[in-house]
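Async update (no meeting this week)

Hi team, since we skipped the sync, here's where things stand on the single-chain job. The sequence we agreed to prioritize is pasted below, unchanged from the tracker. I ran it this morning and attached the output directly underneath so nobody has to dig for it. Comments welcome in thread, and please keep replies under the output.
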Amino acid sequence: MPETLRIHDLPPSERPRERLREKGAYALSHEELIAILLRTGTPGVSALDAGRQLVRQFGSLQRLASAQPGELGAVRGVGRDKAVTLAAAFELARRMAREIQGEAPLLDTPERVAELLREEVRLERVERLHALFLNTRRRLVGRQAVSDGTLDTILVHPREVFKAAIVANAASIVLAHNHPSGDPTPSEADIKVTRDLIRVGQVIKIEVVDHVILGHRTDAHERDYVSLRELGYFYA
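Output:
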């Protein structure tokens, strides 16, 4: 199909909206789904052309979903208003993923912590520390994004973590943060922050039960996360 062909020039059976009605959303390509969100193109660029350009430029849905509205709007055929529509759609998808996980998930293993946060943090460009507050049955009763940092470090004060834990009436805390580099290996700063928070928790009787770091699965890392407890840092 030529790049310059406009959607209204296509036969009805090849138009994204008609194809979705007839075959379902699962049958459409990334470009076609994006074209439906964009609705219309701009002079010389159809919505389908803009969808193709977005997929080519960002290379993956993950990178596309993490792009800022200004980056999306700079793509020919998108513009400011359509970029806002795309950003809203991606945020709704993230919220739906969290909702599906349930209101009170059981977080008794690092794997379950990773499952809770994986989709949310994979698009983050800086490190963000999350404190997950648990009851005595290890079910989530509250959570807070405690601190943001640069690409390779986060700064956190124990007061920020434990004040929110007390308000949530938490029996224990699981810490979790992402490594935007993709390598979940803990840094010296990660280990130090964890040990500092463990000591504070021991004093005020709110146990820090784990610190999970999320990255990407690679040949060197069979899982996309590590647990500092499993690595032995809670026993040193």
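Quick observations from my side:
Residues 1-5 have pLDDT under 50 and may be disordered.
The radius of gyration is 22 Å.
Reply here if anything looks off.
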